[in-house]
Design brief:
Elements: H1 4-25, E1 35-42, E2 58-66, E3 73-75, E4 82-85, E5 89-93, E6 99-102, E7 108-109, E8 115-116, E9 122-127, E10 140-141, E11 156-162, E12 188-195, E13 201-212, E14 215-222, E15 225-226, E16 241-244, E17 259-263, E18 277-288, E19 295-301, E20 309-314, E21 319-324, E22 329-335, E23 337-339, E24 347-350, E25 353-355, E26 364-366, E27 375-378, E28 380-382, H2 388-420
Parallel strand pairs: 11-18
Antiparallel strand pairs: 1-2, 3-28, 4-27, 5-6, 5-9, 5-23, 7-8, 9-10, 9-22, 11-19, 12-13, 13-14, 14-15, 14-16, 17-18, 20-21, 21-22, 23-26, 24-25
Helix pairs in contact: 1-2
């Protein structure tokens, strides 16, 4: 009598219950992947080929296969929570400088500004330089900047507007050509803020004065003081340029390109002296002169004040975008993902991490959305792919199989007992 079949069935079913129990236990673990016990039958065959029709000797566990199917994506609102929709793994470096792989995107900042998970493993990617340019190459731990962003002085200004062709000429017949405090000496005005080398704001006001048919003078005042004058005492404001429109009121004939202007040192609203700004390119090419109300549709300048870091967002391509208090944003790095030809051969290490093996193959590296790599979802996490309902049904089936295998052993025992009792 052989108890081998029933015993192997008990062992295999017990292992299957362990796998099911582990799946159920990790049903709420973010980034966890379910496993499946795979079985193979066993036969004993003699060397001469006899016994080919003999009964099997039981079952064995051929493999415990990991199932890397996509889990549901759930929103969390935390910008450092990340989920991969599609193929790929986050790369993290542990305290022993070993690179591990995970699908769990629960990341946070440590005291040194590194992005880490709950096991204090550092997220890896490409750094960015001080100008926000990503530096591709060898991936390393990502560290967010702590310093603010330096100010940038204004170098370009563009105005898009319509000057009313029906307006009357406002150039005085005698005396000063314009008086900023007298609205009858100009037709329209608008203002914008520009910045000096220290990031101090300068209020730049445009005054538009019609001098004749299709001709307008443009005056500029910085913090209330004209930037161009005749050098007299008192100084008389002078136009920085004259706009000449075609007969149909379309884009200006003159100036044909940007006008270079210099902003002298001024006293701003809080009483501080601003730094001179030289060589600003003033572009009036977007101006028109149609028979409709004056209106400014765009005022653009490229300067900004100093700013402090206020937060970080992660784009779908893995770029970490640092946001500053001056409404500027700048890349602070980019995540690098890894994928494998045979992810089922990865070695599970616990703590939501896997290690590469010879059977898994060499990792294919790249940024999200590149090649076959998935898209990154910021403010979201990937749930476990465990089907809890299916696992509970499998657990019932495994329990019945365990009872059935135990029953075969019991029956074999009864038959053996009967044989022993023969006289």
């Amino acid at each position: 009598m052989s108890f081998q079949q029933g015993l192997s069935g008990l062992n295999a079913t017990s292992k299957n219950l362990e796998v099911i129990g582990n799946n159920v236990a990790n049903a709420s673990t973010y980034g966890a992947k379910s496993s499946r016990a795979e079985f193979a039958d066993m036969y004993a065959t003699a060397m001469n080929g006899s016994g080919a029709t003999g009964a099997g000797i039981g079952v064995s566990v051929a493999a415990i296969a990991q199932q890397f199917t996509q889990g549901n994506i759930t929103s969390t609102g935390n910008p450092l929570d990340m989920a991969i929709k599609g193929a790929g793994f986050f790369q993290v470096r542990d305290t022993n400088n070993q690179v591990l792989y995970t699908r769990n995107g629960q990341f946070k900042l440590d005291k040194e500004g590194f992005i880490v998970n709950n096991q204090f493993q550092q997220l890896m990617g490409y750094p960015a330089n001080a100008q926000g340019v990503i530096q591709p190459g060898q991936a390393g731990p990502l560290q967010l900047p702590t310093a603010g962003i330096e100010p940038n002085p204004t170098s370009r200004v563009a105005v898009e507007m319509n000057l009313d062709a029906r307006a009357a000429v406002t150039l005085p017949p005698s005396g000063p050509r314009i008086d900023f405090s007298d609205a009858t000496t100009y037709n329209n005005a608008t203002s914008m803020t520009i910045y000096d080398a220290k990031g101090q704001d300068v209020a730049l006001t445009y005054y538009f004065q019609k001098t004749g048919t299709d001709t307008w003078n443009v005056y500029l005042a910085a913090n209330g003081a004209s930037i161009a004058d005749d050098g007299g005492t008192p100084p008389v404001p002078q136009p920085v340029t004259t706009i000449q429109f075609p007969i149909d009121g379309g884009r200006p004939i003159s100036p044909s390109g940007p006008v270079s202007i210099d902003i002298p040192a001024t006293i701003n609203a809080v009483g501080a002296e601003t730094v001179p700004i030289s060589g600003i390119a003033l572009n009036l090419g977007g101006a028109t002169q149609f028979g409709s109300q004056f209106g400014v549709t765009s005022l653009v300048q490229d300067g900004f004040a100093a700013g402090k870091l206020t937060g970080v967002t992660v784009e779908s391509d893995g770029v970490l975008l640092a946001r500053y208090s001056n409404d500027q944003s700048r890349p602070a790095g980019q995540l690098e993902l890894a994928d494998f030809r045979n992810p089922q051969a990865l070695q599970p290490l616990g703590g939501n991490a896997w290690a590469r093996t010879y059977a898994s193959g060499t990792p294919v590296l790249g940024v999200p959305t590149e090649g076959n790599l998935g898209v990154l979802n910021s403010g979201s996490l990937e749930e476990s792919n465990v089907d809890l309902t299916g696992e509970l049904v499998s657990m019932i089936t495994a329990q019945r199989l365990y009872q059935a295998n135990a029953q075969t052993i019991k029956t074999q025992d009864q038959v053996l007992q009967t044989l022993v009792n023969l006289r």
